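Journal club side-thread
Mid-discussion, someone asked how the predicted structure for our own chain would compare to the paper's figures. Pasting it here so we can look after the session.
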Amino acid sequence: MGVMRIEPARLRGWASHAVDTAWRRFDIQLTVYAALLASIGLAMAYSNSTGAGTAPFAPGTTFTRGLIWATIAIVVFVVATVFDYKWLKTFSWPLYFVNLGLLGVTLAIGSGIGSTARWVNILGFQFQFSELAKILMIVVLANYLSARWGKLDSLPAILGACLLVVPAWVLVMLQPDLGTSLVFGAILAGMLFMSGASLRWLGLLAGLVVAAIPVAWTYVLRDYQKQRLISFLDPSADPQGSGYQLLQAQIAVGSGGFTGKGLTNGTQNGLDFLPVQATDFVFAILGEELGFIGAMIVFVLFAALLWRILVDAWRSRDPFGLLLGSGLASMILFQLVVNVGMVIGIMPITGIPLPFITHGGASLISLALGLGLLQSINIRQVRAEW
């Protein structure tokens, strides 16, 4: 009986064809939309670095730090794309405990405004591990839920997912960081819904959460958090205190009009009337300088990005991919709605960043990691043609 021999050249050709076929699944649109949003974020950082005669390219400015973080984010995105996502399933539990450990380190040695502990200084840069915790939690939940695919009509399986989130949620609340804790809830809800979990049990859990709000208000939230949550109802009641930030943001957005005042020409920005204008309230400066047209472009880019994330998630043959994409989409959509809502005064102020636009290395790098892992799933779900 003869033995079939495969020519080395043909074997190399097959391997090359398999690689080429896999990389054709790389979602260019996803990458372009994310890059455009990050570029708008850099433009806002540039504008925020021009006040008081400051040179934007001077060391230590918001813009130069943004360029450094963007470079690191690109590297993280490439590494995550090349990385075989299947290893995440193997190391899901170690990642879970690493996640809790990083949040614990933040509580132990972190710094922040007042008595908060939210950032850890690394080589002169402030890094917020709670941003990375969002992505790691998505990975852990995706692994947990995909392992129970088709069995999530039971309450114990749903409660198991909730219990996975609780330790990280508690550590974040102790910082305290109400905004990130709410994002955890949005991620959990979105991933449970997309996993096919029983709507009956999800409705029951949602009712219990609503019923627990008075308890959280009385015993969990701090006084300044309560004041921030209710100030949006009537910011003019305390225009120099809790309502000042929101009033200035509304002035900035309203003064931008249809076309805006032009990049670096915003008065609210240039005269430093608006606190945290480079972070949580960056959308106010965007509205002032780029106007209604600029805001609409941002919304269209977010809609396109979310569409591509969901397309990639839906076409995944692995439930892990569907769930990871669902978690990313839930996180980005929730942060977009809440951030813009609080700037224009229709939602409480909770300190949630605007993805890609808000200045912050941890947020941008975490988003790059999540999108890179989604691309890793894309390119590894093509069967080689032998």
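Post-session note: The chain has one domain: 26-379.
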